[in-house]
Structures are given as structure tokens and as C-alpha cells.
């Protein structure tokens, strides 16, 4: 293999690949990047057996070939280079990365041991990259990170007519986003949130992202990048569990003003981090109190309709719930007792988001 | 006590104070801020018995008084406020922090238990804040962080005629900076580096900083701020230990170019992180090799005089040594064998810096 490529493009391709498939420490082959040089350019592929990714990059290929080298050292070397062009050439049992005055040589791994990079054929559809990134930035971060409960580490993607609905929960809160969906088939899969967090970062500037589901597999592709993953078992996450029939209090408030006040008042909250939202006639009064820290209260102007049910929340979760509505007015639909509050934007955009937050017992006076 | 103060100025004063005296967890009194309101304004004081600080802030004082409250919660509350003015008023056993629509109440601690904020009288002199910040940013970060060897956690400040000389070492490298000193007396003290790291951040925009040494005490003051500390026992750190008589190779190089190449080549270094500097006629060639990582080499254009002694360094320490010379040409004075290399700027400014770096055994080929 012998090729010359634009350094920035090749570095970006390698970095994207490593972030999509971080690799497994147990097996160097599964932490490798499979470089395939053909007349069309160079393709970078990776697989950890559960997840695969490939990214194409333009290159002037002098000699075709395929090699496997450690992925992270390749990405780090390319990222550190400032020369506009870089040459990758096999020299003995090394892949040499050559730039003006410099040579970096990575050991070749046995590419015949690599599981290869598969593609998924199934039914799916197309979404806008910006909308998918917006939806995932909230939904994927709401999933649990605790691997002990794998079922809560996923995002359920489900097509419902001309909308794609994304749902995730860690049991304390749930985020549900829907966005326009140009379908050529149906999808209903549970996809690991860690992968979708990375996909969200990479697609925010992309026009179209194609999503495909097949038996036990999910694939996303955009631009020069394609990623596949095994799916989680997750038919549990259905809408029916959400009983919102008892909403008796609706509060409309500037999300940033409520978040800023929450951050201040939460400095005085108890060990559980609880703040109380006292609903008044045209304001909510946030309160926190702690035996050692002292106490705090702050009023925020709101529009209130219905009753005066006054819930308490864990401040960290309330801030997470308000973040996706930054810069907007948000409605809190509040139910009495220990039942969920639902946050929605007053003027939703293309991506419609519902954030469901469980209340806490109020702090002791 | 009852006063109104500009929020930003009071928040900055409280933040500066907390950073200079982070307090001790064992005793809430030593993590408190002593607020003293007089017609002149409000003074914030802190002491952990070894270190004290006080910062003055303008305020409109309605009622004089002195209270002690937890320092970090006060600083965090003030920092979070966006109102231009804030009122501090004693209400029962609370200090209330009041802004439009909000009240935050901190518990009062017993201010009679506070050790008070002393001042140091002794001999000293004046330096420029910018020069002191520049010198400390390198010297203070060279001291060891390991509290098990307190003698290496200090910076020695010594007046030598019209220069103030700062020295610190962690035994693997040493930094020596000198800057202009307007003396009214002599100083020769070993000051904890952790405090000086914070002083460096706070004085960079200040015209003059006054430094004073007395028996077992050191004080620095600038603008509205004064800090004192107990000194370390450190007469050991003397110039005489540096035998630089055997310098046989001098390399002059662009510091940024050498640092960038070091960062790239170091990706291929062995477990010790060693890179070798092969000195040629008009270039140095950096080399690193590791059985697993592969190998790397890169050339950097230099001016070489004297011999061709080719040392090896721990890459991390070489990068630390080059950092203070960023944007400049640096001379490496190299000695044969396992003797130190000295880095100096080709065109030093007001602050003259010598960075002394111990070599390592070269990597195995």
C-alpha cells in the first residue's frame, strides 16, 4: 500500500472512526483500523464485533493494498501533523506515515484476523442531520450510563407515520423527541446511547442521515461515514406507561430564568439536592433549605393556569430538564402527588420534545 | 451589619479570597470569611492559621459590624447573582444575601473563635505584577506537589542586589528566574508554591506587588489584596550545586518547532516516555522507539555550535522546559554524560529564565 492524502481530511476520518468504535483493550485487532486503498481512495474501517464503522477519504493511491494498524496511534499522529499532505506507505512490517522531515512507523497487525466491516440491509428512512443531533443531544444523554442495567442504556427509535420518535429513560426522568421522517420502511429498535451520543456530534452539520433497522442490527450513514451496531432488547419502553391525565397546574416560564434561579437556590439545598417550586399566581418561588447550608428562596415570573400544585425536584434533574429548552419558553404540566411533571416547549420547532421528570419529597421545613 | 455593594466587585473579592486561602475541612471556622463593615467599606478576611488573606471592597455601609460565615457558599452565591447590586444584612442568626426577588441566608459562625488576619512587618521590596506572574508561572509549577517532601514544594525567593531571584526544583528539573527588584531591604525565604501559583494568577494585571519577609513569615500585597504565609525551611536550594562547566554543545532552535516535533515523536516513545535528541550539523533529529508502538523520527532546523553531544530526555519534562520559551528562540547548553542541560532564551526580556533539565538514558535501539 502506498498513498498520498490531504492530512486534515485523513486525520478527521481517523478521529471520527476512533470515536465511533473506541475498540477493545483485550484484543489489539479490535482496536485496529483496517485501511483499504483502491483507485477510489482510502477507506478506514473498524469493528469491535458489536459495532462497526467505516469512513472514506480521498487519496492519491500509488499502490493498492489493505493493512491493519493500531487505530488510536494513527489518529493521534495524523492529528499532530501540520503538513498539508501525508504519505502512508508499507515498509517491511511497518506502515510508515511520512511528512516533510519526519517518519512515524506503526507496526502492521495481521489483517486476516480482523472480523471485517459489514453493512446492514433492511428497512428505514431519512432524517435531517441537524434535527437528529438536536433530538439525540437530549434523549441520548437521558439514558442511564450504568452497564448493570443494559436495558436503560439504550434509546428507542421508532417510526410513527411521518415522524421518528426517540425515547430514553434512566427511570428518574424520560425524554421523548419526535422529528420529521422520510420513510421507505418502518424502524423500531433500541440502540446503545453511547454510540448515538457520538453520532449526534458527527451529524449536526450534515444534510441527510439514513437510518436502517434489520434483525438485531441498526445502521446509520451520512456523507462518507457508515456505522452499524447490535441492538439492545428493548420493547419495554412504551408510551402507555405515561399517565398524564391528572395535570392540574400549568406553569409557563422562561427556561433560562428558571434554570439560573435553580442554580442559585440549589447552593442551599439538602444532601438530596432538592428544591421546591411553590406555584403562586404570577410567579413560582424556588425554595431550598439545609440545616448546615442555610436557606434560599427566589421568585421567577411565570404564567400560571389551573391549580397551585407545588412539586419539589432534584435540582440537577430539573436543570437537565430545562437545558434543551434554553432560549425558549417552556410549559411545566404538573400533577399532584408523586406523579410526573412534563416539560414541553411553548413554540416547538421541527424537533418536538417532551421531558418527563419525577418529583421528590419536598425538603423538611 | 448591613451594607450594599456592587455585586461583581464583591464576588471577585470573595472568589480571590477563597482561592488564596482554600480553608481547612476539619474546622468550619478556618473555612470562614470574616466580613468587617466600616465607613471605609467592607473587608473580607480568611485564615487557616498558616496562611491569611484579606481583600477590601467598596460598599455603602448602613450599619457597621463584623460576622463570620462559610466562605465558599458566600463566594458561589455572589458569583451566581446577575443583579448589579447586592445587600448583605444580618437577620437573627443568619447573614442574608438579598437581591431583587431573592434571599439567600448563610448561618453565622462564632467570629470570636477566628484567629484573625495578621499583617507582616519586615524588609522587602517591589516588583512588577506582570513580571512576577511570568516568573512564577514557570518556577512555581516546577516545584514538587508531593507533600511528603515539603522542602521541594517551595519556591525560594532571594533578593540579589537589584534583582529578585526565584528558584524551584522537584529534583528532576529546576527553574531559576530573575526579575527587576526595587529593594528597601533583603528577602531570602522559601514560600509554598501552591500559594504562589494562585498569586501569579491574581497579579498578572497589577502594576506593583510588594513582597515582605520576616522571621518565618512572608507577605505579598497588591491593589486591595494582602496575603501572608508561614515559610518553609529551605536554605538548601543554592546556586552552587549547578556545575555547568562542561557544556560542549550549544543548540539554538525555535522553541515552538521543537515542542511540536517532540509532541509527535513522543507518541512513539517507550514506557519511560524518552525521546532522543540527535544533534547534527544544522538540525536536531528527534527519535523515539518502542517495541509495541513502533518508531518515529523528525528533524528540526537548528544552529549548532561546539560538539555533537546527543542527550535523551523524558518528553514530558522537555515539553515543560520549552513551554516558557514559546514564541522565542531558545538555546540548549548540553553537557556530556548524565549532566544537566540548561535552557535559556536567546533574547531574554525583563524576566530572565534558566530551565535546568536532567537527561535520561537513551531508549534502547
UniProtKB/TrEMBL annotation, chains A, B:
Tell me the compartments it is located in.
Cytoplasm
Using the record's annotation, list all stretches that form the DNA polymerase III beta sliding clamp central domain.
129-236
Pfam families listed in its UniProt record: DNA_pol3_beta, DNA_pol3_beta_2, DNA_pol3_beta_3
Record InterPro entries: DNA_clamp_sf, DNA_polIII_beta, DNA_polIII_beta_C, DNA_polIII_beta_cen, DNA_polIII_beta_N
- Domain DNA polymerase III beta sliding clamp N-terminal: residue ranges: 1-111
Residues covered by the DNA polymerase III beta sliding clamp C-terminal domain: 247-360
Q: Which UniProt keywords apply?
A: Cytoplasm, DNA replication, DNA-binding, DNA-directed DNA polymerase, Nucleotidyltransferase, Transferase
Is Transmembrane a UniProt keyword of this protein?
no
Q: Which family does the similarity line name?
A: Belongs to the beta sliding clamp family.
Q: NCBIfam families in the record, alphabetically?
A: dnan (TIGR00663)
Protein name stated in the entry: DNA polymerase-3 subunit beta
Amino acid at each position: 500500500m502506498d498513498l498520498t492524502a490531504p492530512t486534515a481530511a485523513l486525520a478527521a476520518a481517523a478521529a471520527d472512526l476512533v470515536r465511533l468504535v473506541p475498540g477493545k483493550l483485550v484484543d489489539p485487532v479490535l482496536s485496529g483500523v483496517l485501511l483499504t486503498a483502491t483507485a477510489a481512495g482510502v477507506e478506514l474501517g473498524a469493528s469491535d464485533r458489536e459495532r462497526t464503522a467505516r469512513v472514506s477519504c480521498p487519496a492519491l493511491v500509488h499502490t493498492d493494498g489493505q493493512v491493519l494498524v493500531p487505530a488510536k496511534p494513527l489518529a493521534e499522529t495524523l492529528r499532530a501533523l501540520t503538513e498539508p499532505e501525508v504519505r502512508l506507505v508499507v515498509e517491511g512490517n511497518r506502515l510508515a506515515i511520512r511528512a516533510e522531515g519526519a517518519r512515524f512507523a506503526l507496526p502492521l497487525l495481521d489483517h486476516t484476523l480482523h472480523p471485517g466491516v459489514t453493512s446492514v440491509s433492511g428497512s428505514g428512512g431519512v432524517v435531517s442531520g441537524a434535527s437528529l443531533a438536536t433530538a439525540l443531544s437530549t434523549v441520548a444523554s437521558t439514558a442511564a450510563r450504568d452497564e448493570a442495567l443494559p436495558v436503560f442504556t439504550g434509546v428507542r427509535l421508532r417510526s410513527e407515520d411521518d415522524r421518528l420518535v426517540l425515547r430514553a429513560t434512566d427511570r428518574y426522568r424520560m425524554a421523548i423527541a419526535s422529528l420529521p421522517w422520510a420513510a421507505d420502511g418502518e424502524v423500531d429498535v433500541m440502540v446503545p446511547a453511547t454510540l448515538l451520543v457520538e453520532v449526534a456530534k458527527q451529524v449536526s452539520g450534515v444534510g441527510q442521515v439514513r437510518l436502517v433497522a434489520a434483525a438485531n442490527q441498526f445502521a446509520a450513514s451520512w456523507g462518507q461515514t457508515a456505522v452499524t451496531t447490535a441492538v439492545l432488547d428493548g420493547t419495554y419502553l412504551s408510551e402507555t406507561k405515561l399517565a398524564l391525565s391528572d395535570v392540574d397546574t400549568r406553569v409557563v416560564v422562561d427556561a433560562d430564568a428558571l434554570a439560573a434561579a435553580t442554580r442559585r437556590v440549589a447552593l442551599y439545598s439538602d444532601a438530596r439536592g432538592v428544591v421546591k417550586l411553590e406555584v403562586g399566581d404570577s410567579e413560582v418561588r424556588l425554595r431550598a433549605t439545609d440545616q448546615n447550608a442555610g436557606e434560599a428562596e427566589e421568585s421567577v415570573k411565570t404564567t400560571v393556569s389551573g391549580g397551585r400544585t407545588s412539586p419539589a425536584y432534584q435540582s440537577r434533574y430539573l436543570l437537565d430538564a430545562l437545558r434543551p429548552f434554553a432560549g425558549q419558553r417552556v410549559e411545566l404540566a404538573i400533577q399532584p402527588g408523586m406523579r410526573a411533571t412534563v416539560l414541553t416547549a411553548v413554540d416547538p420547532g421541527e424537533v418536538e420534545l417532551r421531558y418527563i421528570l419525577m418529583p421528590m419529597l419536598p425538603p423538611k421545613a
